[in-house]
Amino acid sequence: MTIRVLLADDQALLRSAFRVLVDSEPDMEVVGEASDGAEAARLAAEKRADVVLMDIRMPGTDGLAATRMISADPSLAHVRVVILTTFEVDDYVVQSLRAGASGFLGKGSEPEELLSAIRVAAGGEALLSPTATKGLIARFLAQEGTAGEDRDPARAERLETLTVREREVLVQVAGGLSNDEIAERLEVSPLTVKTHVNRAMAKLGARDRAQLVVIAYESGLVRPRVE
């Protein structure tokens, strides 16, 4: 299957560069370009995009608002948003994940990293960009105070619907581990881990693994560590 990619960036030169890169791959194609968030949200539906490469800072409707718009539309539940940001250590990163983004990627990433991120996002496995550390989300959430007074009680209550094993798997997902790594640690098969992850996503209303991570921290299941 060909991955349908939408490019959202207010800089035409960057969009052109991304288009050449993406269209050079046999398993993906650029189906549209947007220069602002509102246009990106509209084209995501119109062009039936699978993945949106979304610049965080755009005039008018920015990438954060556009991500919320896409995430809030049930008809776009299959669309994965990968945030493009100049600085990965950015206050907008966690806001983007909370808004429904599947992950983020620094604009300084290598071409291979960008292509890999698109494939990972299309597969619903997006979490962090290849160059980001596994504890980045935890550090941001610690700075935002979600480990304490801002903990979301509603999400904490929803955790009670998870089985003991699903909670164990969720903790490992929040630690940035892959299904294979979790399987090895819990001494089960990768397929079993995938089943638990999918069930946890369904029960918690998470779009993908990135949302599971945010829920794990915001509910207090996992405590952020600040290095």
UniProtKB/TrEMBL annotation:
Q: Supply the InterPro entries for this chain.
A: CheY-like_superfamily, NreC/VraR/RcsB-like_REC, Sig_transdc_resp-reg_C-effctor, Sig_transdc_resp-reg_receiver, Tscrpt_reg_LuxR_C, WalR-like
Domain Response regulatory positions: 4-122
Write down the Gene3D superfamilies for this protein, in alphabetical order. Answer: 3.40.50.2300
Name the keywords, alphabetized: DNA-binding, Phosphoprotein, Transcription, Transcription regulation
Instruction: Give start and end of each HTH luxR-type domain.
Output: 155-220
Q: Does the keyword tRNA processing apply?
A: no
Q: Does the keyword DNA-binding apply?
A: yes
PANTHER family cross-referenced by the UniProt entry = TRANSCRIPTIONAL REGULATORY PROTEIN NARL-RELATED (PTHR43214:SF24), TWO-COMPONENT RESPONSE REGULATOR (PTHR43214)
Protein name per its UniProtKB record: Response regulator transcription factor
What is the scientific name of the source organism?
Streptomyces thinghirensis
